[in-house]
Structure formats: structure tokens, C-alpha cells
Amino acid sequence: MQGTSGHRSRGSEEYGVYDDAKTYYASEERHSNRYGVRTRTYSQNSLVKQLERMGAQEPFRRGSHDETTMETGRRFLVQVDATLEILKNQEDTDGNMQITIEDNGPKVISLRTAASAGHNRFEVRGTYMLSNLLQELTLAKEYGRKQIILDEGRLNENPVDRLSRLIRDHFWDGLTRRIDASSIEIAARDPKDWTDDPRPRIYVPIGAPEQYEYYQKVAADRPELRLDVQQLPEKITPELIRDMNDKPGLLAVAVEKVEEEDELGNKTTSLKGLPFVVPGGRFNELYGWDSYMESLGLLIHERVDLAKSMVLNFCFCIEHYGKILNATRSYYLGRSQPPFLTDMALRVYEKIKHEPDSKEFLRRAILAAIKEYHSVWTSEPRLDPVTGLSRYRPEGLGVPPETEATHFVHILKPYIEKHKMEFEEFVRAYNYGEIKEPELDEYFLHDRAVRESGHDTSYRLEGVCADLATIDLNSLLFKYETDIGRTIRSLFGDKLVIPAEFCQGTPYQPGESVSSAVWDRRAKRRKLTMDKLMWNEEEGMFFDYDTAKRQRCTYETATTLWALWAGIATPKQAADLVKKGLPRFEMFGGVVAGTEKSRGAIGLERPNRQWDYPYGWAPQQMLAWTGLLRYSFTEEAERLAYKWLFMITKAFVDFNGVVVEKYDVTRPVDPHRVDAEYGNQGLDFKGVAKEGFGWVNASYVYGLQIVNAHMRRALGTLTPYETFIRAIELNNERALAGLTLT
Ligand SMILES: OC[C@H]1O[C@H](O[C@H]2O[C@H](CO)[C@@H](O)[C@H](O)[C@H]2O)[C@H](O)[C@@H](O)[C@@H]1O
Ligand SMILES: [Ca+2]
């Protein structure tokens, strides 16, 4: 059985070229038996074959036929340490442990062939193959191999296949966490913990006493972990969240009961954490909207277990913390993130509906979403009582502790100078109300809202976010309303009873039942209000609405396309959005977060913000594609997906397998280079990338389902979109000219 993909069967002497690293490198036999081992190739996966099919020249010399056949492929006999040394000294000329197009080595290394018992040599050429060699050798070394028999197929693999395979077999597992004795030290690690003693710490809600007991036992059994276990009080206040800044920690999520047996056969019950996928890099906890995006990729890869358990973790968060959290760390307790629970639960349900407990799973998720809808999104302060629209407006106190150290320096500098204090001294005094600065209070009210919006940060939102009924949030709530209504009607006989534990913060009494009609009315009302206040007929786009100034905003944001995803646009509005709106956001690498005009001039005093032009983010792409398809704009969805996938694949090929958090979608050569705010995540690896970045991984596999087969092949040969489309048009013209009608 091959890792998680499971699509290869193997006889005792036959191995898969594309086995996951563990299967490939853990086998002693495969790498010692030079002659007995047969390796299957998947010729359709080979870059060589792709090039041949296109009539293009191979970028490297092929060896003699006695050493390679289409059946087996060429194999190399490689001494791991020595070859790694040569690669590093000769090819990694800038010494960053990656081989990229920026290295100036000779770009060629000669390897011994396995079939000649190391007698003959064959040259491996070019950045892509050499960087794949570096990646493979780094993995081989990690598995303790001194010598390997390496399939050439792993070096010249079609890059689309290689990246999809890495995501499926490696990246998801690399990003999966579980909060229990098996790996709590990994889940608890927090690169954003800037305190002097960043020890592992877990906060357990008052309603989960078994978990509190369990983690205390883990701490006692394994003192070397220095695990600090704390129980949260029942009421979580802004003051409490602020006080926890000195002792930041992980927040407990859902667990399941499991039976364990010791050596003597005694059975005991223990707890096992429900797994979740983290975004990656500095973000090592369960995030709100990242999880939804990740689940789209996980479901394609048949990792339903993971997507399902993330839904259950969200239910736990709503039940115990009152909301789906921005993420599960103490400093995120006061705020949420863009809500996607209903769509996520329905997609999981689609996959598991044949299972006996699937209806119960969906019922719990919908009940949790109803509670979240009322108690978080449509009650004050997030609700604007005048319009009935909602805003990102979380509660909190003081300066968010998790950002990079320099993030607020330019904001706080005048106040620090005014009070003649050191930076940290001022932050403390301000956080604890010893210094009153109402203007700063206002700034941080909006800053918290920006972070809740997921779009942290952007000039669209800075200094105003808590007042904005954004097109994104209100589209998402419209989707909640329609999803909840439809689910109650079609799956629960138009009657859903609200149990006591889901009533708090809602208008319902325990045992009261709800029907779909009220949800249909809510959706209808929201749509009418959004049409009236947010739609600009002339511009052909929805805009945010400022509930304080009572006026429509003018910042052009890609979130206008979320109206398509949610299904809130009429067919005419959708056509306008595509005709007038979309061209403003379409760049070389896909959809940009906002337009250059709206961002305005940037400079030393007004630095770049990561959710503005020229940056593009995975969720914006995925929602745009899905929305366009929903309204049958197939060509546009395919084109945008192609551009995004091309940019990611090209960076992956040219930069040693890199997959990052966000991209500069206007930059064809090195789009992964983003220096705004905390920089990019996913860049920091030695030799081989192990995780990619959660939502970009998902966008890659999701996007590959959007483009057609022809496009997928063209992506594999790194054909830029313009070249691809010209070839298609030429072909069409020829076909048209040759068409004879009888
Ligand atoms: O530490 C700074 C901020 O980091 C997070 O925001 C960014 O990463 C998140 C995880 O991928 C993502 O959900 C968000 O859209 C990004 O902007 C965090 O969510 C912020 O609250 C935090 O202040
Ligand atoms: Ca390098």
C-alpha cells in the first residue's frame, strides 16, 4: 500500500517509481538489490514523453537503450552523502540549501547508472532535475540511506504530477496536528510566542473536564515536555484574553474516546485528539477560513476523515468558545474569521451520506452554524441595527501580541514619544488602561476587525473595518441563510428542533423548532439590502458599505466576486461582474486582491499591505472559480485557474519545489517573493519542502479539477497561458477552414 494514495499494487519485487518517500526510501531491499528489483514507470507522467508528444527537444541527453526502456526507465546508483556534497558545492551557489534558477552552477551532474553497476555515467541537467535530485537525496538521507537506486522518473517527473503527488502523499500529513499525548509537543509549538519562556501550554474550557484531567496526566507522565495545563473560566472576557498574553497557549479542541490495552491485556479508556490541518509556517494551529479552503483539497484527495474532523472541531469551538475562532490560540479567543461552516459541512456530508451517523453529523453542524449565525454574526456589535447587515467587529483590548515585532511601530511611535516610554513599557501601560489614548482605541478596534476579516492587512480596511458591512461577510451570511434553509427543508423534513445547548445567544427556546421559511426570508431581506446599498450599477460591481458614514465605499476588492460564489448576484449582475469587474482583477497569475488604483501610492511612510495589489491569495482564486462556474462562466473560470496554476507550477519548478502562502500575481519570474508585512510563509526549508502551504496546496488540487485535460497537459510543459490560447485559436481556425459540410 502506497502512503495515502493507495493506487498502486506491487508484487514482492516490483516497486513504484512514484512511491511516497517513506515507502521509497525505507525499503532496504529496493536500494541494495541492484539487479533483481524491477520498477514500474508511469510513462504518462514523464516529462520526456510530454515533450516527445509535442515534438519538442529534450533538455537532456538520453543514454543507450540497454540501460533504459519504456518499461523500466533509467535508474541511477547514487552515493547519498557524496552526491549531496557535490550538489551543494557545485550547484547551490548562493548557499541557501535550494537549487534554483538564481544559482549559477554548471547545472549538470553526472550520475552512475544502476544497470551498468555504476560503470556508465549519465548527465542530469537543468535546475528542475537537479533540484529534484537535491530533494530526493535530502529525503534519502533522512531515512538513513547511504546509497540509493534512484529512478530517473523522480527527477524528470511532470511537474504538475509531482506537485499534486507531494501534496497528496506528503504535505497534508506534514500539516496535520492532533492535540494528545502522541504529538502535543508538535501541536503546541508556536513561532508567534514572543515571551521569554515559550513553553507548551494548553487551555481547556470549563465544559471539558475529562480533557483537563487527561492533559494533566500527560503533563505528569511526561515532565520533560514542561506542558502547562490551564483551565479556562466560564466567562471569557477581553480582560482575561489580555491577561493571557503573558502566558499564550493552545486552546483545546475536540477529542474522541478510545480504548487502549496495556502489555498485560488490561483495557482502559483514553482520549485521542481529532486531527486538523494547519496552514503552515508560523501558523501552527487550527484556523477558521484556512480550514474551509483546505477541506476543498482534502475532499478531492479522499481525506474525508480530516475534513470531517475539522468540521467537528469547529462545532466544539462554537459550543465551548462561542465562535469558530480566528485560530486556536489564547490570543485569538476574542475574534472569529470569515464563516464557511455550512458549505464545509454540506460538502463533507455529500461524501459520507451513506454512513449511518451522517445525518447526525450534519444536524450538529447546522445547529452549531445556527447558533454561530445568531450569537456571533447577527447580534451587536457585529450587527448594524439600522441596515440589518453585518460587520467584522470583535471585542478585545490593546495591541495584538501575535504580529511581527515591528508591525505597530509606526503607529505607536508618536504615543511612545509623547509618553517618553520604551516600546514594551508603553504597550503594557496602554493595554492595562494606565494610559488612555482614545484614538489608539479606535485604531485597534478596526485592527482587530481587519484580523477577523482574514484580510489582515489592507488599505481597504485599515482604520475603518469595524464600520464596514463588507461584501465578503454579507455574501457569506447569505450563503449560510440559503444553506440552512435548504438543508432544513430537504433533509430534516422542514423542521429542526433546537436543543438547549444550542440556544444561548439565539432567539430560540429549548425544544423550539425552526423551519426553512424564516431562513428564506432572511436571505431575501439581505439580498434586497445589499442590492440597495452595495451594488453599483455603473461600475458593475458590489462594494463595501460604511455603516458609520452611511455611504458606499469605492475600494475595488476581489471579494466582490464572492457574490457569485454565494449565489447572491442576479444573472444580470453576474454578467456585469464578469464584464466590468473581473478585468480589473485579472493579472498574470490570476486574481489580485484589489486594484492598484484603490490601493494608492505606497512608499516608506505608507508600506505595502499583503491583502492589497499586487498580491493574490488562494481563497480569492478558489471562490472566484467556483462562483464563475456557478453562473456558467466556464471559460473564465478555466482561464483564471490556468493562470494561477501556471504561476505556482513555474515557481515550483524554478525554485526547488517552493509552495508559499501568497504570491505576487504581477511578477512572472519570482512571484513567491513577497516582502510585505511578515514576508512569505513556506519559503524556509532546507533541501526539500515538506508542507507547502495549506490553502495553496488545496487551490492547486482544486484548480486542477477546474481546468480541462488539454490545459492540464499544457501546464505540465509549462506553457504560458498566452502561448496556450494562441495555439488553441490557431488550431480552431485551421479546423474551421478545413470543415466541409455535406
Ligand atoms: O500574525 C499576523 C496575523 O496572521 C494571521 O493572518 C494571516 O494568516 C492566516 C493563516 O493563514 C490567514 O487566515 C489570514 O488570512 C492571514 O492574513 C492571523 O489570522 C491574524 O489574525 C494575525 O494577526
Ligand atoms: Ca541556492
From TrEMBL:
Q: Please give a single GO biological process term from the UniProt record.
A: trehalose catabolic process
State if Hydrolase is listed as a keyword.
Answer: yes
Q: What is the E.C. number?
A: 3.2.1.28
> Needs which cofactor?
Ca(2+)
Q: Which reaction does it catalyse?
A: alpha,alpha-trehalose + H2O = alpha-D-glucose + beta-D-glucose
Specify the domain of life of the species encoding this protein.
Eukaryota
Pathway(s) = Carbohydrate degradation
Q: What class of enzyme is it?
A: hydrolase
Asked if the Swiss-Prot or TrEMBL record annotates the protein with the keyword Mitochondrion, the reply is: no
Its recorded name reads Trehalase
Organism annotation: Trichoderma guizhouense
